[in-house]
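Q: Given only this backbone (559 positions), what sequence would you predict?
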């Protein structure tokens, strides 16, 4: 028997809170339909691709006094993509709702992500299995994977596996790409009269799966609090030793929600926001000059230390680098089967690439350190993109800032000392024990996912709103997946995908950073948030993110 930590023993006892509408019981619900919806962009193309599931209404649930009996059903669940704190609670909520609806219902977990439902690899959940994972981090209950569900062969195999198990509904727990899979599968099932519903749940610590109906993706709260604790520790160390500049890269490839939230929780000296860099067309040189300027000003004050937060995906948002990477992606796609290229050493590869890039992109590529050049040539991710987590942007900036400060020292405009440390916080936050907020939110998302199935819906994303209020006041419902979609270029062809939500530079969250940025740069306003708290007053244990507080406060002000 696996030995448990003292914290896990206590967390297993925690009973997550539900919205009042769901707490009344899965068999005591009524559904309210809103207006028909349309895609966020490229409506005609999306409607053409999703003829059977497009334009459905947003729905919400409320408690009713009448009780509806439910037939026993078999449901399957998939964990897809990168891990996020709270995934186990989504499954627990789904399981509890299913069993509450009819004790004879069964829940199957497909192993290793979407490939499990294609290959028929699964387990049947038991009370003992579910109870061993409640309120814990990780996805290890069934594992995850990144297989895309998009081909006719995959859909046919999936259908056969579901028929073999008499499964009439599938819940896919994942991010934007995973829920694009869910939308594709839902459409195919309806088109082929399969009688199988598909519901998604919004997961990603990056925080970029959100809109008016999805206020936050699960895992974001826990991950940012985990990173904030680590960065708070480093802030205190920097303020104690007073001799190092810490360059900290934070997870968040396509959006800087994580970095922005952590900055508001800890108040470091420098916070780079990818979306701001792109909007203001900042060059790599301008970024280095900006950082070097703050370092020099602090040195004049006798402060040869500080903290800089760097988003994981920064390099793709720098305009000249972004253009070069786009050109590079096309070239690498052509060269993946080129025997001369694949057998060449690094320097030879650099020469081949430089010769194929256009003049402007070649100059940008040539200006980068060999370490970064090599990292840019690594294998692409499943979507054909650069694996930015493997590009050591923090080391690139340290090298370039160090060179800039050396120039300034020669010119007599810098007299300080620059010693650096680099860090990358990514995996540290993906499997943490979920905060009370994420434990409650995820359990509600899973419970609510079955409510959507109970009312016969498919192609929907489980939605729980009003999240800055106490859990009893949360609003449960669903949003059509097609409502969140647009067309984007992937592997050289345009495909339907859920649109990522980037940091809004005119939004209240970024504006809060912008208001304080100059003060935090020079004055040590460091906050040390400490570890996630699970027991104690609600003001400590159930607090939500600064992002949610600011965004919801702005909504109330607008009303």
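A: Predicted residues:
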């Amino acid at each position: 028997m696996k030995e448990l930590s003292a914290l896990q023993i206590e967390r297993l006892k925690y009973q997550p809170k539900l919205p009042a509408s769901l707490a009344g019981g899965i068999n005591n619900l009524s559904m309210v339909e809103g207006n028909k919806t349309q895609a966020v962009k490229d409506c005609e193309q999306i409607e053409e691709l999703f003829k059977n599931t497009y334009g459905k209404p947003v729905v919400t649930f409320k408690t009713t006094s009448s009780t509806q009996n439910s037939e026993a059903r078999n449901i399957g669940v998939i964990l897809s993509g990168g891990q996020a704190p709270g995934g186990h609670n989504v499954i627990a909520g789904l399981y509890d709702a299913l069993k509450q609806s009819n004790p004879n219902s069964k829940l199957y977990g497909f192993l290793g992500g979407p490939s499990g439902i294609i290959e028929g690899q699964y387990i049947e959940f038991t009370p003992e299995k579910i109870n061993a994972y409640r309120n814990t981090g990780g996805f290890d209950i069934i594992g995850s994977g990144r297989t895309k569900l998009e081909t006719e062969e995959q859909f046919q195999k999936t259908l056969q596996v579901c028929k073999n198990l008499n499964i009439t509904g599938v819940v896919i727990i994942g991010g934007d790409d995973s829920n694009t899979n869910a939308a594709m599968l839902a459409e195919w099932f309806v088109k082929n009269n399969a009688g199988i519903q598909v519901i998604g749940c919004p997961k990603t610590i990056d925080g970029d799966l959100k809109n008016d109906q999805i206020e936050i993706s699960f895992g974001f709260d826990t991950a940012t609090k985990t990173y904030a604790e680590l960065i708070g520790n480093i802030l205190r160390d920097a303020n104690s030793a007073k001799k190092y500049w810490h360059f900290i890269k934070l997870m968040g490839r396509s959006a800087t929600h994580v970095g922005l939230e952590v900055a508001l929780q800890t108040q470091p000296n420098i916070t780079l926001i990818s979306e701001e860099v792109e909007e203001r067309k900042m060059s790599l040189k301008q970024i280095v000059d900006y950082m070097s300027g703050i370092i020099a000003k602090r040195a004049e004050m006798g402060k040869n230390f500080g903290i800089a937060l760097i988003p994981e995906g920064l390099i793709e948002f720098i305009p000249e680098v972004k253009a070069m990477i786009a050109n590079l992606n096309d070239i690498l796609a052509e060269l993946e089967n080129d025997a001369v290229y694949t057998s060449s050493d690094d320097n030879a590869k650099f020469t081949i690439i430089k010769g194929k890039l256009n003049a402007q992109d070649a100059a940008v590529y040539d200006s980068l350190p060999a370490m970064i050049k090599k990292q840019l040539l690594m294998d692409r991710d499943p979507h054909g993109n650069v694996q930015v987590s493997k590009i050591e942007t923090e080391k690139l900036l340290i090298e370039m800032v160090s060179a800039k400060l050396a120039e300034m020292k020669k010119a007599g405009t810098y007299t300080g000392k620059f010693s650096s440390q680099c860090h990358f916080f990514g995996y540290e936050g993906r499997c943490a024990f979920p905060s009370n907020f994420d434990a409650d939110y995820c359990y509600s998302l899973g419970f609510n996912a079955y409510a959507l199935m109970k009312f016969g819906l498919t192609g929907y994303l489980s939605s729980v709103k009003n999240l800055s209020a106490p859990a009893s006041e949360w609003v449960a419902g669903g949003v059509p997946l097609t409502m969140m979609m647009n067309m984007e270029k992937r592997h050289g062809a345009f495909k339907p995908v859920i649109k990522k939500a980037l940091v809004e530079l005119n939004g209240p969250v970024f504006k809060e950073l912008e208001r304080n940025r100059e003060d935090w740069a020079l004055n040590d306003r460091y906050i040390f948030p400490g570890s996630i708290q699970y027991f104690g007053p609600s003001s400590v244990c159930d607090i939500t993110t600064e992002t949610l507080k600011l965004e919801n406060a702005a909504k109330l002000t607008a009303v």
